[in-house]
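Thread: Modeling a multi-component assembly for a lab meeting

Hi all, long-time lurker, first post. My supervisor asked me to bring a structural picture of a complex we are working on to next week's group meeting, and I have zero experience with this. I have the sequence lines for every component (872 residues in total). Could someone generate the structure of the whole assembly? Inputs are pasted exactly as I received them:
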Amino acid sequence: MSHDRIFAAARQAGTIMVTLLGLLILTFCIGRLMPVDPVRAIVGEEADRATYELVAERLGVNLPLHTQFIRYVGDVVRGDFGVSIRTGQPVISDIAHVMPATIELATFAILCGAGFGIPLGIFAAINRNRPADHIIRFLTLIGHSMPIFWTGMIGLIIFYAVLGLVGGGGRISDYYIGLVPETTGFMLIDAAIAGDWEVFGDALNHLILPASILGYSSMAYITRMTRSFMLDQLGQEYITTARVKGLSKGRTIWHHAFANIRVQLVTIVALAYGSLLEGAVLIETVFSWPGFGQYITNNMLIGDMNAVMTCVLLVGVIFIALNLLSDALYKIFDPRTR
Amino acid sequence: MYHMKAMIAAAVIGAACWSAPLRAETPPNMLVVGFSMNNILTLDPAAITGKETVQVLANIYDNLVSLDPVNRSEVTPQLAESWVVSDDKSKITFTLRDGATFASGNPVTSEDVVWSLKRLMSLNLAQASFLKTHGFTADNAEASFTAPDVKTVVITLPKKVDPELIIMTLGIVGPGSIYDSKTVLENEKDGDKGAAWLTTHSAGSGPFVLGEWRSNERVVLDRNDKYWGDKPAMRRIIMRHLAESQSQRLMLEKGDIDIAFSMSAADLKSLEANKDVKIETIGGSGFYYLAVSMKDEKFKNPKVREALRYLIDYQGLDKTVLPYFGKLRDRPIPSGIFGALPEAGYKLDVEKAKALLAEAGYPNGFSTTLRGISDAPFLNLATALQATLAQAGIKAEVITGSGDQIYGAMRERKFELLVGRGGGGQLPHPDSNLRAIAYNPNNSDEAKLTNFQGWRTSFFDEKLNSMIDAAQVEGDKTAQTKLYGDIQGYYADLVPAIQPFSEVVDTVGVRADIKGLALNPSWSTQLRTVTKER
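Re: Modeling a multi-component assembly
Sure thing. I ran the full set together rather than chain by chain. Output:
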């Protein structure tokens, strides 16, 4: 590896560290400025001053802010992310439990979103201002603008309560709890490993509705962006030249126009996936889905800073990882960046 | 290649469309209960704070005594088969029943009881306040709780107090929960008396044991096969975290849950017509009230406070905002508790309020703020109160926020008007309410007695404090009942800083085929008697 590359890698690592540290400082300050009191969450409304002081001392919240922050960062550097106030468990083990639930939901949703969104966007662009384009734009406008908790609730009423096609809240029906050993935390994978296809089907039944609703929302965004990117390309002179030279419409669109929007698509799909991983708190609440979004929100509401800081750090790492992945894909799709 | 693509497409479509058969109801030996578990932070009885945790632990831990679900003032035996109060009312001696064991198989002994009570006081967490109020401390715990033999527990009262109050306290989840001391000590870490372990494990002698707790996901209770009493019909109880009221309703309608504990008024109302579901209401603890800060010059004036008393639409709120949540009550002792007087009968009377405000020097009213939590029913209560206050010229700006923001301001004594909920009531004894809502032993800012709502509102009356203290230690029940009647009259004459307008009730949705459910006030329902008629 050349010196230049080593230098570039070191600079990138440095940028990442500074970004994460900045993120931690910002989160810590916001967390401490928020009018929530973790001590009160623990001791309750009726506790007297002595009990309050005892717990405040145990949590260290009466120390100066900079001391609390330095102590936290020191622990993080040593690999100790602390214990959550809400669960009494190490934050890392909490996240290891909630993250697979969110990854399962987000992955299914992004597959739906990108799988339908990109072809629909291309189709709409090709048929610009025709009825098909209007219909797709209308559907994506609805998907983009409807509040997701409302869509979720309507989905539950229609597909769960009225038609009985899908499961209700949670990741699995109650009578299947504990039947499959938790190997990976991914319900579908664990059920498949155990060979229990009844549990697999039940888990799929519970996943399909919230994931589809999230996927619809992502699809709306991806479709509109794809359409816009494609229209931009289709208006370029090189497309006209290709068609004049006798290249078929399909080849022109697929091999030239689409090839040129792949880099942009990678970016928006990666960002959409990152947002889904960050947690779809509303859909998780409506579907009682024990995921990352609910975890971070509920802990934020009681000022559980160990949990909140670790979650924010993780979100930062996810976005950085997705950015690095996008960069890597750029190099595949766009030779100019190699 | 074409075939492969076709196969992949078929597999994806097949997986998406395939669905396992969905069951329409819960299994006959498994009870599924739904409620919001946002407030469950620990399952150690000494450290709990919310009623949701009480609902879980009431089925895991036994107490020396229990409180009757219907007539709450009646104390019945549980781990203790009998008890005697000494003639001078300074000691209570409990005799334990034979044959009671913990889930571990260890016998329940007097050492376990004493250890549990000493642990409560030495950890000094949330639930210790119930006994600290009556003079128990970590320092005097050694002398206060003793075990002369394996079946006898003696509690020596550190100060003069009605022994009945202590017995009742030992009947509620938290301060009265008895631990298996051997099991807890086996799991002690760095001298923490098992605090870390008990957050997610149980060591009780109740009909169920804690199988699993996943924060904000579920609590699983498994039947305790070593339970000393009648075996529960349910092999397992699953308590589901369902934060959304509508999700609870839909799942209850579908039969995916058997009991829903925290539904909104709108969802409860919509279920009234459903013949597969029963709606049951049971007494809760505390009141809905309008509080004023007497640090504020305006509200220091009793005429202004009296005007506010006539600007509450008691009957209107009862009919429109508080169905399922509260029951009309304008006294500081809930109905059904000994000593409780009938309603004072306050009514919305704008003209009278205007006259009182004019007498106080505010003929055109004034501007102020009214705080309330941004959840139901507080937001609706605040809006309704804002409207009635406006009729007398009081322009109240509604400030909403989280519990921390609203009650935090009250604890800091930095508020003007506040619509809230509270006022004791965990014990079926008037002292529990009066001490929470009216008592204030020291009104100075430095005292920081935030656990007394009297202090939070800067409401202080020495005579009232003495009357509450005297009534509590009165040994003759008839005389004590009269004293509590006098206190309510005097409290009304003082025109207090906290005016209750409703007493809290809890409403639950239950599948119609659930039998043997004896709902217990304050979310302490024992589910061991539940069966399903399927």
